[in-house]
Amino acid sequence: MRTSELQIAEPFPYYKTYIDVLGDCELMDKLQRQVSNFPKFIESIPDSKMDYAYAEGKWTVAEVLLHIIDTERIFQYRALRFCRGDKTPLPGFDQDVFISGLNVKRYSKENIIEEYKIVRKSTIALFANLDRKSLESTGIASQLNWSVAALGFVICGHQRHHRNIIRERYL
């Protein structure tokens, strides 16, 4: 499925920015490209920048990277529930609570890269076996109606969005 095939009333203005940053692309191709490219991007970040925050109260580079991983896990779980037909509404999550509960000092750059690869390969395994009907399956999360495809594209766009922020504000 391509971004251009999504029905945009979904997934609403806030999340649409994550899809728009991707341009027109195919979901599996984007998931595969990012699993190769994003670890290289992380490797290119100087070690001295991992604990850097560009302003008071902002997350460090390491926290942003771990936020990307956490968010992918959550959106992947939502996609799993919806593609399997579970119509139970799912709650949102508070990203700041997730970060505050994180012991970021325990993570080296290598740990972050390895965890990212594991999570992304799991996402790829899930989406690789979905047919069009499954990708068009929907469910409620954060009081919003999502398709499985939209969740996949938001995973990719969320990562790209934060990579751009790291490049612009941190490096």
In words, what does this structure look like?
- With 171 residues, this protein is mainly alpha-helical.
- It contains 7 helices and 2 strands.
- A hairpin with a 2-residue loop joins strand 1 and strand 2.
- The longest helix has 23 residues, at 61-83.
- The chain is globular and about 45 Å long.
- The mean pLDDT is 94.
How far apart are the termini? 34 Å
* Text of the CATH class: Mainly Alpha
Mean pLDDT: 94
Helix content estimate: 55-70%
Helix vs. strand class: mainly alpha
Keywords:
171 residues, two-stranded antiparallel ribbon, Four Helix Bundle (Hemerythrin (Met), subunit A), globular, mainly alpha, 7 helices
List the helices and strands and how they pair.
Layout lengths: L11 H9 L6 H18 L16 H23 L11 H6 L8 H20 L3 H4 L2 E4 L2 E4 H23 L1
Antiparallel strand pairs: 1-2
Question: Summarize this, please?
Answer:
The chain has seven helices and two strands, in the order ααααααββα.
